[in-house]
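Supplementary Methods, section 5.1.

A reviewer requested that the exact input to the structure prediction be made available. We therefore reproduce it here, unchanged from the version used in the analyses.
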Amino acid sequence: MFTILSAASSRDAGRKSSWVARAASDVIVIAGIVALLGVISFLLPDITARTGVEGIPSTVSTNLSDLPYYALRSVFRMFVALFFSLVFTFVYGLAAARNRRLRAVLIPLLDILQSVPILGFLSATVTIWLVLFPNSILGVEAASVFAIFTSQAWNMTFSFYQSLRSEPKELQEMARSMRLTRWQRFWKLDVPCSMIPLLWNCIMSVGGGWFFLTASEVISVNSATYALPGIGSFVSVAAEHQELGKIGAAIVVMAIVVLAIDFLLWKPLTAWAEKFRITQSGSVEEKRSAVLTLLRRSHISEVLGRVLTPVGDVLDRAMRVLGVTGAVFEATGSRRRAGDAAWGVIAAAIVAFGVVQMGIAVAEGAGFGEIGHALVLGLITFARVVVLTVVCSVIWVPVGVLIGMNERLARFVHPVIQVLASFPANFTFPFVVMFFTFAHIGLGIGSTLLMALGTQWYILFNVIAGALAIPDDMRELARSLRMPARLCWAKIYLPAVLGAWCTGGITAAGGAWNASIVSEVVTYGGTTLTATGLGSYIAAATAAGDMSRTIIGVAVMSFFVVAVNRLFWRRIERVAEHRFSLN
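The structure derived from this sequence is encoded token-by-token as follows.
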């Protein structure tokens, strides 16, 4: 009798404890949502403020008391840009993967877009943003967000496209047999299958955005400078005034911001994304996150389900016009060939028109003889990119596989590499300049190291995502057969991550070209170190407002990136897709 009463009392206590825990979780979640909305409401008036009589500021204050506010402004820009990058990824990646004709144009265009440095985009678009939002800070804010977007979107799009192209065929057949609409297939198959690599590339994209934070918050184009309140502009002005203590304080604040984002966002998302792994058995150890546990314990998922389910049903009915998975809209036979020919003519005409316009701009400016000089500079930067890609691949591919395959190791290493990848390496450039000057090291060698600080993570993160996507069944098979480690690497691990390494290599190389604009010209106070290369050429042309040389530099950089992608990366990518995809 006593035992029964004790058991009943324990159950009552458990239910009470569970109720209390859920109630406490609800309070914390509601408080977090209110705090987030409050921060956004606090920032919006300043973002949309009028410029006033003095116009757009060209500098910012370096008072330490302003650092928390500057950090909030920078984080807000970063995640607004990430939202638009995610929308772009879904639209662009889906169009490239699902439409053969569009793919022939969109993928080469993506190669070009990822090779264009953010200064190239800014020099062409900042005036447009200022016209769209006259006499308002919002114009420069939009230009800054767009600059961060151009440093984030491309690797996410490549990752999503690669995931769509390597979806397991049995899942595709299941979607057809269930007659899912194209809208339903996107959310029930395409997005879940791409979730793990896409999430890791989102983390990397934010890191890439931090790397270019200084250039996107202090915009110097056409001999004009526009400065926005932010931690990147704070570091830029502090470096100009040689205030090392304030740069150190900004680094500390940045480290706190990165750790907070990792704890509040990336760690719960990576733990949640584990449910999308393609496997018939569970992971050895489930990833844990205090924030995710808190959210699961609260009623937030139930509330969102009740609110969003009717919206989802309406969207499902509205999107039926897009057709059913497996439906064929393209013509066949002679009509298909005629359509391909017409499409080719239209694409060729657009490209020809663009080339002619660029030729006119170059002829009226620097002249065609300048192209040869830019090509030589491009070869120098290309050599740095090749060395960086090879060395980073040799180092990070095996490390990434080990992290992705070992749950215990990943638990400790994931937060560290996420923080390192998210931390803006160029914040340390003033200290690097001092070291290079003291040690008499030229930036010709040092710029390769500076480029690697921001781009090596593309390879590591993609390889980790590829290793995480290896089904547990393959791992169990290797263990049950007692395959030697060397054979496991040769037959399972390296082939399984080949496609992920291709994605990481393409985006790392593109990011390295982009990073050359801030790595080949480094300034601290009155000391400026310049490395010979295409990045410094574009940076100088953009700062001087020399549009013809900017066009030449961007065109030459695009030529190198597209040529390497066509001749090298795409061939390896086809091998990975046809021979080593998990189909």
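The first helix runs from residue 2 to 47. These observations are discussed further in the main text.
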